[in-house]
Amino acid sequence: MDISTIVGLLLGLVFIVGGILSSGELKAYIDIPSLIITLGGTIASTLASFPMEDFLKTFKVIKKAFSYEEISPDEVIQEIISLANVARKEGLLSLEEYAEKLEDEFLQKGIMLVVDGTDPELVRNIMETELVFLEERHAEGQSIFETMATYAPAFGMIGTLIGLINMLRQLDDPSSIGPNMSVALVTTFYGSMLANVIFLPLAQKLKIRSKSEILVKELMVEGLLSIQAGENPRIIEEKLKTFIPPEMRKDYRKQVEKEGV
User: Fold this and answer.
1) pLDDT at residue 261 tops 60
2) CB atoms < 10 A from the CB of 106, how many?
3) Can you tell me the distance from the alpha carbon of 1 to that of 227, in angstroms, rounded to the nearest whole number?
4) Does the keyword Membrane apply (predicted)?
5) Would you say 69 and 102 are in contact if contact means Cβ atoms under 8 Å apart?
6) Which H, E and C letters describe the chain, residue by residue?
């Protein structure tokens, strides 16, 4: 569970509601027709912008923004060093047994390519192609929220125009101008709030998640190719450490040896 997504969204709503209550009444900002125009219009235009299959994946993408099992680069480096030690002592073919126990399908696939004696250049091409398409799939999820963030303020403005038209039709009644103008501006408020409190933060969170996952996969590719090239585990460790920030770097090889691998 990603606490920061939940806390961030809740804090955004709390601060907005707090600001409203400290300067006026909350009920002045509640208008169902304005919400229908803004939210309904945003969903409709997003649906029109994407194939139905991609749009229906939105719910799955939302789940990923709130709940995500992050693979630590630390754990991947340790795993690669362990595999390098095994390959050095027992040969590359012995990695097949370890691959069957792995949950990560990407790493498992890479190991099997290495075990099958695939040319290193071809291994790199296959794995990097997987990464390219993985990144594209992630980008599709992000673009759905970015599109919603684009449409929400636009429908807020449309709602405002509808309210203004209704107001102009009742100019003979000066007492109705104030309330009608207030309702008209509520849609702009809804559009800006949906875009900046919900859609854009979710798109940004998915972008960060994607970047983190791609980094881990790149670590795996580089590690597997190093194992295939028969490099020393110490050299592999130093090479993989360059992918992560200095403060996260440890002596992974000693740690792996302590664990008796």
Assistant:
1) no
2) 18
3) 34
4) yes
5) no
6) CCHHHHHHHHHHHHHHHHHHHHHCCHHHHCCHHHHHHHHHHHHHHHHHHCCHHHHHCHHHHHHHHHCCCCCCHHHHHHHHHHHHHHHHHHCHHHHHHHHCCCCCHHHHHHHHHHHCCCCHHHHHHHHHHHHHHHHHHHHHHHHHHHHHHHHHHHHHHHHHHHHHHHHHCCCCCHHHHHHHHHHHHHHHHHHHHHHHHHHHHHHHHHHHHHHHHHHHHHHHHHHHHHHHCCCCHHHHHHHHHCCCCHHHCCCHHHHHHHCCC
Give residue-wise pLDDT tens across range 191-226: 999 999 999 999 999 898 888 889 999 989 999 999
Inform me whether the pLDDT recorded for 258 exceeds 70.
no
Contact criterion met (CB below 8 Å) for 227 and 80: yes
- Asked whether 145 and 203 are in contact (CB, 8 A), the reply is yes
The residue among 195, 209, 198 whose CA lies nearest residue 67 is 209
Residue showing tokens 């370890």: 98
d(CA 190, CA 177): 20
pLDDT the model gives residue 226 = 92
Q: Is the pLDDT of residue 251 over 70?
A: no
Gap between the Cα atoms of 148 and 190, Å rounded = 13
Domain ranges of the chain: 3-16+31-71+126-248
Integer Cα distance of 31 and 184 in angstroms: 10
- Tens-place pLDDT, residues 119-142: 999 999 999 999 999 888 888 888
**pTM of the predicted model, to two decimals?**
0.80
The token pair at 209 is 């998640």
Whose structure tokens read 């209550």?
A: 21
